[in-house]
Amino acid sequence: MSSKSNRLGRGLEALIPQADSGGDAEPGRLDTVLISRIRTNPRQPRMKFDPARIEELKQSISENGVIQPVTVRRVDGGFELIAGERRLRAVTELGFERIPAYVVDVDSDEKMLEMALVENIQREDLNPVELAQAYEQLQARHQLSQEEVARKVGKDRATVANFLRLLKLPDPIQASLADGTISMGHARAIMGLSSRSDQMSVWKRAAAKGWSVRKVEEEVRRMTEPAETKRKGKTEKRSSFFSGAEDRVRSALGTQVRIRPSGKGGRIEILYFSQDELDRILDLFDRLQD
Questions:
Q1: Is 217 a catalytic residue?
Q2: C-alpha torsion 23→29→30→31, nearest 10
Q3: 3-108: CATH topology
Q4: Intervals of the chain under pLDDT 50
Q5: Which of 55, 166, 218, 249 is deepest in the core (most CB within 10 A)?
């Protein structure tokens, strides 16, 4: 095998001795390990691996070597991958025998998932649905509250709750969000509709016509407008001020909001769709008072 196939990457040669451990790496150190002795992580939060991204990574590794080590733990006489599956796939396809790796002590499946999830979050490497599914897996597998999940991954509870809400959307909408057809902003606006048929209707039109997030928000607002207001045949356009104000509050709270002006005053209506959602909103207000 050519020397290029065993290249570790600029800078790593100075950190990892050329006479490496032969795969018997000790926990808590940076080493090289035999790729044949690494098994993938069954708790990997990433569900899809874009072949184009793998090819780009292969090209980069061919030119520069493996710049960032993978992370593994010792298990059953070999290693289990914690983070870095794309890198592992790339070097395997390139025919490498070894890969630089951080070998760490991890004694529970919960910690494995937590580390894999945090690594992907820090690299902004998961789509919104994968991230939501990872949060749900971490919560369900280990009976954690949303607050505990948020603390483990370094996010606030409202953020975790907003992602978990995505999993209540119909599967086709989740798939559209995962492949980038719609954005997180589109999905959050669609969640303002309580009816799944209404959600599907807005999503189909938004995806087919390339609607902006603002357009989806306007459609959701129109569909959720109280019946009595519609009966009045109100034709005047709402001022851009109130529309913008609704958008700002909706973004801050992560749920559907309506502002009802009346004379010099008015009211703000905050919609919620479950007890958990109400608790999340109340938590936000509690933090504002701290």
A1: no
A2: -20
A3: 3.90.1530
A4: 1-23, 228, 231, 233-236
A5: 166
Domain locations in the chain as residue ranges: 3-108, 158-289
Task: Name the catalytic one among 26, 56, 63, 85.
Answer: 85
Domain 158-289: CATH architecture, name and number where available: Orthogonal Bundle (1.10)
Backbone Cα Rg of the chain: 24
pLDDT digits (tens, 9 = 90+) for 99-140: 998 888 877 777 776 777 676 666 556 788 988 888 887 788
The whole-model pTM stands at 0.56
